[in-house]
Amino acid sequence: MHGFSNAGYFFFLALISVIASMAFWFRDVVSEGAASQNLKTILSNNILKIAKAILQDKIKQTLENYLKENSNVIKNKEYLGHYLAGLLEGDGHISLPSLGNTTLNRVLNPRIVFTSHINNLGLFTYIRSELGNIGRFQKTGDNTLRYIIGDRKGILLFINLIHGKLRTPKNIRFNDLIKFMNNKYLLNIPKSPLDCSDFSNNSWFTGFYEADGHFGVKIVESKPKSDTRKRSWSESINLKFRLDQRSFDRPTSSSMLPLMEKLASFLYCNLNTYKIKTGSTESEVLSLGISSIIKLGFIIDYFNKYPLLGVKGKDFKHWEKVYYMICSKEHLSEEGRLKIKLIAFEMKKNKE
After folding, report:
1. Distance CA 57, CA 64 (A)
2. Element (H, E) at 78
3. Cα distance between residue 62 and residue 125, in whole Å
């Protein structure tokens, strides 16, 4: 620029270097921005509770721990079949795709999905092992577990295991699944009849209660009469046994009332109803509840004959201890009440 020899060449060389540096720099800024956007997507997926797979090492370790803690678990296919039928009807879902292949030429199979609390991972690793390790696990959010059976072999095995053992309107959906598999794979599986046998003859109610039941210990502390309380309250301890179900099964547009009436007769209790509101939608819930010590003896005998296999099995053992303490009047002493309070605390921890 000032007349130096070859100054023009150096000038244009420097200019090209600056432009190239700026171009590469802007390229890095753009790529980092895209990475940042991708990070935001990952974070938002976690916030939106996108399902995540559970590692095989964790599944293996959980199963080992479960078998150590439940060394007396019943290994019987007939027991497991009725239990799984009840569990499916309580907390399960059958998803049916359209027949045929997709535009990517993928064969779509139905899915049988169980949804539970993550604390029940031990139960479902045990079920999976008994089914020949079919199916996979997903975790949604912090505490929701899903066990999914979605391959042809697994679905056919599951159909065979619970065929003729369902009691609710979900049997309609189960027969839709059978029809789907017959059409897709040219099979001849017969329709599943509704099971109308006595509840006390198998483990169906155990599986159903595992999904939707509740064992409770109600402790009322003593309170003296005051300006705001007209009567004094004496300390009391009661056991609660409760089972709730929505009155209407949406996938099949069927009422759950006939089944719940039969269960009320089986449990020697009344069937009550109450309303719940979800957003702007209100729905009716059918509820069975028992608190009478005399009637609860029948429940104790049933679950000792057909044991609960999940977290509710632990709750039941704690609950059973309180039952026998009340029967022997231990709950009337200060020491007995303290023991019961500690047991109730352990039951609360199991639900966290």
Report:
1. 11
2. helix 77-91
3. 7
Nearest alpha-carbon partner for 257 in 237, 282, 284, 224: 284
* Cα–Cα distance measured from residue 224 to residue 237, given in angstroms and rounded to the nearest whole number: 17
Q: Residue 92 and residue 268: Cα distance in Å, rounded?
A: 27
Please give the helix or strand (H or E) that residue 299 lies within, else none: helix 293-305
Q: What is the pLDDT of residues 146-195, one digit of tens each?
A: 999 999 999 999 999 999 999 999 999 999 999 999 998 999 999 999 99
Which has more confidence, 232 or 334? 334
What is the rounded distance in angstroms from the CA atom of residue 207 to the CA atom of residue 198? 15
pLDDT in tens, 44-84: 444 445 568 888 999 999 999 999 988 777 778 889 999 99
- Domains of the chain as residue ranges with CATH: 52-185 (3.10.28.10), 211-226+233-350 (3.10.28.10)
d(CA 178, CA 187) in angstroms, rounded, equals 9
Q: For the whole model, what pTM was predicted?
A: 0.80
Residue 273's closest CA among 248, 244, 242, 241? 244
Gap between the Cα atoms of 30 and 236, Å rounded:
68
Q: Report the alpha-carbon distance of residue 99 to residue 94 in Å, rounded.
A: 15
Which residues, 6 or more positions from 306, have their beta carbon under 8 angstroms from its beta carbon? Answer: 79, 83, 202, 203, 205, 206
